[in-house]
Amino acid sequence: MDFNTQIIDEFRANEGRVGGPFEGAPLLLLHTTGARTGNKYISPVMYLADQGRYLVFASKAGADTNPAWYHNLKAHPETNIEVGARTVKVRAEELHGEERDTFYDQQATLYPGFREYEQKTSRVIPVVALIPVD
Q: What is the pTM of this model?
């Protein structure tokens, strides 16, 4: 069983709570549709809550490329997330400029690993707002 599958199983068994490297961190399960393949994927990602939105950070641990889920959201912005025991329909919108910088700094203050990711790469790490829709 791969790392993500273990996290997903633990998340679902414990209403969104997991141990290991994500213990105590706000985590959601992001459902995406492959930009090229059309395949369905689930990615556990940390988020920052903001007035009903869920902000996610395409850090990929500081790699020089964006994670696959970022490209998938750009191609298919309407999707679902699992938060706790709930499934929420959302629309993805990328944040830019000062709004992006403010929220990235907030996340990096709460979780210093995000500052390290930023220092490891020359790209600007995207911040994506997942906005609940009816």
A: 0.95
